[in-house]
Specification:
mainly alpha, 5 helices
């Protein structure tokens, strides 16, 4: 665990922000009132991690690998797509 994260968590705990709900409730005014204005960047990062359910990864400094996107393949010789098109007709009504 990084020392800066440990210090942030220690400060938050000492000020009474000991649950995820309390941490998510911190805004700029609350941070200023509690002497946490210098830690606002870390608080915002922690709030983002909590909302994305990755608080443990935030604390430990880890990340999960992102899944690779699979390429969609289409068979160009497929007869099903040879005659596909959008046909529209317009009808005019003389009464309008």
């Amino acid at each position: 665990m990084e020392k800066s994260i440990q210090k942030l968590l220690d400060k938050l705990g000492k000020k009474g922000f000991d649950t995820e709900k309390k941490v998510n409730a911190i805004d700029m005014q609350v941070a200023y009132d509690n002497g946490l204005a210098d830690e606002l960047g870390g608080i915002l990062a922690l709030q983002k991690a909590i909302k994305s359910h990755s608080a443990y990864a935030f604390i430990m400094g880890g990340t999960d690998p992102k899944p690779e996107k699979k390429e969609v393949r289409r068979n160009a010789d497929d007869d099903r797509t040879a005659k596909v098109g959008v046909f529209t007709e317009t009808h005019e009504n003389a009464g309008y």
